[in-house]
Design brief:
Elements lengths: L1 H15 L3 H26 L6 H34 L7 H26 L3 H19 L1
Length: about 140
């Protein structure tokens, strides 16, 4: 029985190996967002504003993102791969797109927390930087 469970566990790990970096990226963005949220809460309302109830949302969000990434991966790998392969040559494009969506959601939340404390909108500064870079690049041509 122990051998069968070990075999099942190794099989599961090997099937999910391609999405491990994507799941870790999503979890890292959630942890970073949580750190910024705690920072904002402490700066605005002090340490008494930290509640375990609010921090427990981090666990449910992590499980939700990880489960959704895994579900989309399995769906893409075993159901949609043949159809999608005729149109797009990128492996795991749906899984990567969903992970990108999750990370962008967390980055926007990080930006909101940072903006709330410092008054600086990092996203707007980044867009302005890209526009200036593009203009300077066009001047060089």
């Amino acid at each position: 029985m122990k051998t069968k469970l070990t075999l099942l566990l190794f099989s599961l790990v090997s099937v999910l190996a391609p999405i491990t970096p994507l799941i870790l990226l999503a979890i890292a963005s959630i942890i970073l967002d949580t750190c910024f949220g705690i920072w904002r809460s402490v700066k605005k309302q002090g340490w008494k504003s930290i509640r375990s109830r609010r921090l427990s949302h981090t666990i449910s969000k992590t499980l939700l993102y990880s489960g959704a990434i895994t579900f989309i991966f399995l769906l893409e790998k075993y159901v949609v791969a043949d159809i999608l392969g005729h149109f797009i040559a990128i492996d795991l494009v749906l899984t990567k797109a969903f992970t990108f969506f999750c990370v962008v959601t967390e980055v926007k939340s990080i930006n909101e927390s940072y903006h709330s404390v410092t008054g600086v909108n990092v996203w707007d500064k980044f867009i302005a930087f890209v526009k200036r870079s593009k203009e300077q690049l066009e001047e060089l041509k």
